[in-house]
Amino acid sequence: TGAGDVQVSVLIVDDEAIRDMNREYRGMDRSTDVLSFPMLSYLDGEYDDQLVFDTDPETGEVLLGDVVISIETAVRQADEYGHSIERELAYLAVHGVLHLRGYDHENESDRRGMRAAEEEILALIGLVREPS
Length: 132
What we know:
This protein has about 130 residues and is of the alpha+beta class. The protein is built from 4 helices and 5 strands. The strands form 2 sheets. A 3-stranded mixed beta sheet has the order 1-5-2. Strands 3-4 form a two-stranded antiparallel sheet. The longest helix has 17 residues, at about 110-125.
């Protein structure tokens, strides 16, 4: 699909709510900064062009999935990393959407690729990482 042909839901919650979701869906009893719930299915578990997807019957948009962000954790991380809350929220949203698109950071190579994609997207919207 092209740009504008997808739909993503973003939910902003507190640490308690994201902890409940993390425990229920991932078996991890702790809060986190962002969770992603993809709706795309990949044939044979591979991330390739053979996608199975649902669409919104009213708009025809592909339902990419849901991103849940903890505002409390975002505020703490913005302070810790020395940048604005806007940049942190944008980073977490981009990170979550990349997970919906099949990106991961389980190994160093994947982590570097995901980080490069995050920074490229944030630069496009003018939210570059400030030099430390």
